[in-house]
Amino acid sequence: MTSAATEQTSTTGNPFLDAIRLPEEKSIPEANSQGLSQEDFFSLLSQQLSMQDPFKPVDNDQMIAQMAAFSTVDGISNLNDEIINLNTVMTSSQALQASGLVGQKVLIPSDTGHLSVEDPVLKGVVSTPEAIEIIVVRIEDDKGQLIKTFEVDGSQGGNVDVSWDGLDKNGDAMPSGNYSIKASGRVDGQSEELAVSTYAHVTSVSLGTASTGSILNLRGIGGIKLGDVLAVSEV
């Protein structure tokens, strides 16, 4: 009885009425992708051709233009995917090459360096626009307080190497931390601040992203892009 009753509620016995009956249980449609694939395009194109007015057929040039437009969009999409894959490969390759810098020192465009037990001497480079007889170098701590002043010869011009032994003006060793190298000299008869770059110890390499590239992690300084490195040194 139960089976028969169930069958009576689900069918009317009339094939036509059964065909147009609404389903008793609503099914949740699956989410469809909003992207138009090549198969979807040709399916729509076939529908367009089958439903066109025989007396006003679609112009051949119009059909070719539609196909060309879709091919162009599809090609650009595939090209973007290839570029993303290429960027991933290049980023990984760059990180692998940059890993060879771990344990070495790199010259960075900053006047701040890190003094520590492992690096008791702070080294840098002063860039001069012309030959300067005397370059005055000032060492400052992270609070901007003057620690020591000394002079170096800049008569050769160009990039002048400077180094600080970690001692203050009284000969006492300074504690570990970040210190700045400031430099000035007389250019065209006037005192002028000069650009200073410092050496930093590379402790590790981070993979980074396609936009940033590999990141060199420097002892006491932080991270810097591989592309910002000015020079590499073993000192």
TrEMBL record:
InterPro entries: FlgD (IPR005648), FlgD/Vpr_Ig-like (IPR025965), FLgD_Tudor (IPR025963)
Annotated signal sequence range: none
Keywords assigned: Bacterial flagellum biogenesis
A Pfam family: FLgD_tudor
Domain FlgD Tudor-like, chain residue ranges per copy: 93-229
Coiled-coil stretches noted in the UniProt entry, renumbered to this chain: none
Listed GO biological process terms: bacterial-type flagellum organization
Stretches assigned to the FlgD/Vpr Ig-like domain: 126-185
Family label: Belongs to the FlgD family.
NCBIfam families given in the database record: PRK06655.1-1
Function: Required for flagellar hook formation. May act as a scaffolding protein.
Full protein name: Basal-body rod modification protein FlgD
The organism of origin for this protein: Shewanella violacea (strain JCM 10179 / CIP 106290 / LMG 19151 / DSS12)
